[in-house]
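Take just one protein record:
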Amino acid sequence: MAKKRPQKKSAGAPQVTNGEVPVVGAREPCPCGSGRRYKACHGRAAAHAVTELVQRPFEGLAGECDWVALRELVPAATAPLRLKGGLPDGVPSVTLATVLPMAWPALRRDDGSVLLALQNDTSSGDLSRDLADTLQRALEAEPGTPVAARRVPAEGPRLQDLLDAEAGFEPAVHTGFEFWVPQSADSASPEVAASLERANAAAIPTVKLPGVDAAYWCETPDKNHLRWVMPHPEEELLDALARLHAAGTSSLGEGTRLVGSFRAHGLVVPVWDLPTGMTAADCEKPAAAFAERLAGALASDAPLTAEERRARGGLTNRQVTLS
């Protein structure tokens, strides 16, 4: 085999001798001047730095469980966000949205307000850092323009650095995506209108239960479901659910069944099958009663019985990881 010749530095490439090497496209020449493509040069270290997975990207934010629900489970929802130090001049409000038209990561509206999308694909393993980068660029964007996706630098603030930790998190679940279009607007562009029509057609009816935290009822053609994002450590929660399941007290009433759970962003999301006729309002009292039973099971430190271990194994086998 012929020996590989050492790559020469490009004569016209800029030389970076001090400071950090800028992030560029993977196939572009590396800004350091080596003559190699970025992905084969400084891009290797940058890629490793930004792909280390953060298991709980929303930890420390108010309403962590609802952040997870809006990211993974809820089709159409919004929540106002409050920034540390207040809003910049010319920005009347910042609102989190599940998705935006054309999958925009964010949008600076004509009136200067900002919409930040939560369900977009991200470039690194730290969703909080990716969203913070998008939010910062949206705050500086020209009114009336969307914010494009980009590769996020390895260093930078996270949502926890930008959002006011003292502010609550109050999501509003919508039946559709009409919140994309301001009431003051005469009409949406043809592209936004078409995207709105597609999104509304695909949205699963979803309702947030008011009596318990981060529990969401949804309606599907075959049956309804309750999906409940819980903040408890996974092993402790599975033990508690197993105790209730073995005792026959894990359901939400006649015709309901705890069928398994999702694992999403470091939290566990138990899922119940519900009869088609069981509405969100019908779930409120049974869910509150279950929360009390669960609290008792979580407080127990007794070893699991053989039956409880079998129940735990069944629940573990029916767990699906979303992220």
